[in-house]
């Protein structure tokens, strides 16, 4: 938790420099509190860096495709020239991501994660998949992660401006 706190302080300090006046001075503190609430409910003082990174990616303002690619980079394992995501890594990713809606009472059972993992690897004979297969599966909006594109669309609509006038 202390290491993540330090990283968040640096991250938001850099963000404040890039966007003066747009970043709350307590952003690092608030974000750390959220990460602790999500991933350290028992108060052990330990959060896996990869889990924290997954949450930060999921909650970032980036595009869905950029988020999906970042998930792949964090959870994939190198295999020669390419990187692959294994069933085990996908389970870890889905478990980590499903802690986010769980904090507001929208939990998913472990069987949801298993069903999603099975659907991603449907028709795959290998023990791991390449990035394109992973991205294709995520673009199909699996039920276990439906909250992610929904939140993205909601945040994207805030930027929409119509030049219509109402009476």
What does this structure look like?
The chain is mainly alpha-helical. The chain folds into 2 domains: 1-47, no CATH class; 62-149, Orthogonal Bundle (Recoverin, domain 1). The chain contains 9 helices and 3 strands, in the order H-H-H-H-E-E-H-H-H-E-H-H. It has helices at 2-18, 27-39, 49-59, 64-75, 87-97, 99-102, 110-120, 131-139, 147-157; strands at residues 77-79, 82-86, 128-129. It has a 3-stranded antiparallel β-sheet. Helix 3 packs antiparallel against helix 4. The longest helix has 17 residues, at 2-18. The protein starts with a helix and ends in a 10-residue tail after the last helix.
In CATH terms, the superfamily of the largest domain is EF-hand
How many structural domains does the protein architecture include? 2
Compute the number of strand runs.
3
Supply the CATH class of the largest domain. Mainly Alpha
Structural class: mainly alpha
Query: Helices and strands, in N-to-C order?
Result: HHHHEEHHHEHH
Ends apart, CA distance between termini: 53 Å
In percent, how much strand structure appears in the residues? 5-15%
* Number of helices in the DSSP assignment: 9
**Average of pLDDT:** 90
The best one-word shape is globular
Give the low-pLDDT segments. Answer: none
Gyration radius, rounded: 18 Å
* Strand order in space, largest sheet: 1-2-3
Question: Roughly what percent helix?
Answer: 55-70%
- CATH topological fold name of the largest domain: Recoverin, domain 1
CATH architecture of the largest domain: Orthogonal Bundle
Main β-sheet, in a few words? 3 strands, antiparallel
